[in-house]
Amino acid sequence: MGMKEQNYGNHIRVYPIHHLVFYPLSGILVTIAAIRAYRHPEVRMEWIFITLLLLLITWLSFMLRQHYALTNQNRVVILEMRLRFFMLTGKDFRALEKDLSFLQIAALRFASDEELPQLIDRTIKEKLSPDTIKKSVTQWQADHMRV
Predict the structure, then answer these.
(1) Which helix (H) or strand (E) holds 22?
(2) What's the distance, Cα to Cα, between the start and end of the chain in Å?
(3) Three-class secondary structure of residue 62 per DSSP
(4) Residue 2: left if φ>0, alpha if ψ -120 to 50, beta else—which one?
(5) pLDDT at residue 8, as a whole number
(6) Left if phi > 0, otherwise alpha if psi is -120 to 50, otherwise beta: which for 78?
(7) DSSP states of 82-146 as a string?
């Protein structure tokens, strides 16, 4: 996948723009706006509004945690496929992962156990799109737990 080999020294995932720029900058701006609201009574309401607006923007950024949840869920999807494939075939799915995109793997999850191994082979040989994979599933296995 072209990613740097992971080790103890680099395993922590930091989103630099988010953690090192946005939150510190937001904290500084909220502090400045709050101080101005306190020190300048003639424009206090405007600075209170600005402070609240900055707090709202900062709070909404926490909503980005949905992104983190989806990233974790995608990891679980891959682990689920590894387990299912091993249980069905006795073979290691990791050898096939290099030939499949995440979206293909996610689409393959909808296939029943009976059709999954053959559909994986077909997907790799024919380079099926995720949509084509889903349309090829004859016994749909629903996923009601997706975030």
Answers:
(1) none
(2) 25
(3) helix
(4) left
(5) 67
(6) alpha
(7) HHHHHHHHSS-THHHHTTS-HHHHHHHTTS-TTTHHHHHHHHHHHT--HHHHHHH-SS-------
| Max Cα distance, the chain (Å) | 75
Phi, psi of 19 (to 5 degrees): -80, -35
DSSP three-state, residue 41: helix
Say what the pTM is: 0.63
pLDDT at 145 over 80: no
Which whole-number Å values give the CA distances from 55 to 2, 8, 38, 50, in the listed order?
Answer: 38, 35, 16, 9
Q: Which residue in this structure is represented by tokens 């509004």?
A: 49
